[in-house]
Structures are given as C-alpha cells and as structure tokens.
Specification:
Radius of gyration: 23 Å
Keywords: Periplasm, Signal
Distance between the termini: 76 Å
Shape: globular
InterPro entries: SBP
Number of domains: 2
Strand content: 15-25%
Largest sheet: 12 strands, mixed
CATH topology of the largest domain: D-Maltodextrin-Binding Protein, domain 2
CATH class of the largest domain: Alpha Beta
Mean pLDDT: 91
Order of helices and strands: HEHEHEHEHEEHHEHEHEEHHEHHHEH
Number of strands: 12
CATH superfamily of the largest domain: Periplasmic binding protein-like II
Pfam families: SBP_bac_8
Oligomer: single chain
Organism: Shinella fusca
Protein name: Spermidine/putrescine transport system substrate-binding protein
Helix content: 25-40%
Length: 360
Amino acid sequence: MKNADTARHTITAVFAAALALGTALPAFAADTLTVFDWSGYEDPAFHPAYTEKHGGSPDFSFFGDEEEAFQKLRSGFKADVAHPCSQSVVKWREAGLLEPLDTAKLANWNDVLPNFKEMKNLMTSADGTAWFIPFEWGNTVLTYRTDTVKPEEIASLKAFADPKFKDRVSIGDNVDDAYALASLAIGVKDWTTLTDAQFKEASDFLRQVHKNVRLYWTDNTDLSQAMASGEVDLAWAWNETATTLQAEGQPVAIKKDTKEGLSTWVCGYVRLKGGEGSEGLAYDYLNAVTDPAVAAYMVENWGYGHSNAKGMAAVDPKILKDKGYADVDAFVANTLFQSPMPTELRQKMIAEFEKIKSGY
C-alpha cells in the first residue's frame, strides 16, 4: 500500500510539474469510436461481434447523402469510420479525407466478392493501397404500389416523367441515384462516358420528372411512410423500401424488367483521416460488419446483398432466390453500375441537380 501511495504521489507530481511548465502531455487515442453513417445502419444486428466484444455499439452520427457527408468532413467534422458508396470513394480519397486500410487487420478482406475486388479504383488505388472495404450492395429500382399502378404503365423508366403521375412520384434527394435514373432513361449504361450532349439530355429528363415529384426522399423511413399512406405511388428506390413495406403487408412491388433497366451500387466503409477514436475499435467494427454471419440478416431483412462471399454462400437458397440474389449475373444484367466517376463530372451533376430541385 505504501508503494502504491508513493507511486500515486509521484504521478501527481509529474502532472503538476508538466502543467506548471506548460509542457504538453502525451496524447492518447480515446477509447471510443464514432461511425459516420446513413440513418438505419446503427442497427446492432449489423455488428453483433462488436457489441459482444465491447458490451455495446459505437457512437453514430448520420448524414442524408454523401455530398452532405463530404462537405461536413471538409469543414472539420471528426469521425473515425464512414460509409460512402462506390461513386464517392475517389473523390473522398483525392480530397485527403481517408486513411489507408491495413489489410492485415481486416479479417474478411480476402473474402470480399470477386466482382468488387476487380473494380478499378474501388477497394484499392492504382498503387495497390487499400482504402475501402465493401459492406452491402443492391439496386435502385422502380418501386410502385400495385393497387394504383398497372405494370403496363411502367414498362419504361420514362414513366417517371409521364404527366399522369403528377404529384405521385418520389426519387431520392441523392445526385447519384437521380443521374443513374436519368442516364438509364436516355439509354446510357456507363455514366463515366456521358458526353456534354447526353448530360444535357439527362438533366432535361430530370426536369420533367421534377414536375411530377411529390417528395425527394432522404431515407427509407421518409419514402416508406409516403408509400404506405398512398401519398406516393411510384418511386425510384433502394431494395430496402419494398422489402420493409412488403413485410408490413403493403401492396408494393419492384419492377426490375423495365425497358431501360435499373441501377446497381456497392457501399462500404473507410477510415477517416484525423479520427480521434481508437484504431483498434475501428478495425473491430470493420471486421464485425463484414463478418459472414451478418449476410443472412442483411439479405432477408433489408433486401441487400452482403460483401462477404462466404456469408452469401451460406444464406438459405430460397431467401436468395426470393430476394433476387441467387444469380449474381442476372442481378446485375441490364444495369447501370454506379462506378467511381471523374470528380469533375460528379461536381457538375451536383450543381445541376440543385438547380433542378429548385425548379430551374
């Protein structure tokens, strides 16, 4: 006990001396973790291994879309881990917002679906540096109320601009999904190749859609409530919307076989530069969300695919078939993949979409 008292007095004296001399004390990473995410992804069922190990979930802060997240991070907001999607990874990396990933600390890095590993500028940059680990993937697809909309009325994505649907339409307040819809509607499947003339044509299509828009949704809750109440009959939505509404017994379906197709995306996690939390907790979280055990819950309850190949292989084949994931090639057929795009093009889309939403 005497030795312990002596030690405490010594430590106290050192701290007091440091304060008196104005000497800076060593900085230590806080034993916390802040995840910057889309609303809904705080669901503990997405990170059970983390909760089991640490006795609870990390702290979460939310964004409505990736441009909002980007601007907030640029202005100095601090978080440790964030959840961007494929089309934003290059922009965030070039802006200096990301910390490289140590793949030796990522237990499931080698089990990511091969299609994602092969994508240029997604998981790694040209020099082999790792930046992004995929988590979920899915579609943005035409979604409709089956009691008010007939399938023959929506054989084409151009239905979103049909005057018969005035004040009955909803699309995301999300530039990527908006221009995915517009690109498909004008016959473009690779948005990185958009010419100036095609960009104008796509933007003009969105201006026509705007005349019909009842709601620019920001998350699944907004849209689901609007569709359940009958406020919205036709939406450009993520798989999650139809999955949750069908579980509630709502007359809602998706239509993947429109003439122009649908959009496919992949989102995942990155480490943020300047994060003040624990690096160890960050890797624990990344390993928890990419754990193969999470795949079944994601597919069945959210309608999305999981990035872990072993996890997807273990999901009940009937559930995979019901959700459209039994045949990956068929899943991505006739699709515009929201691949990383040149930063200049994305900035152009952002500026134009803001004008469109304002009625210009």
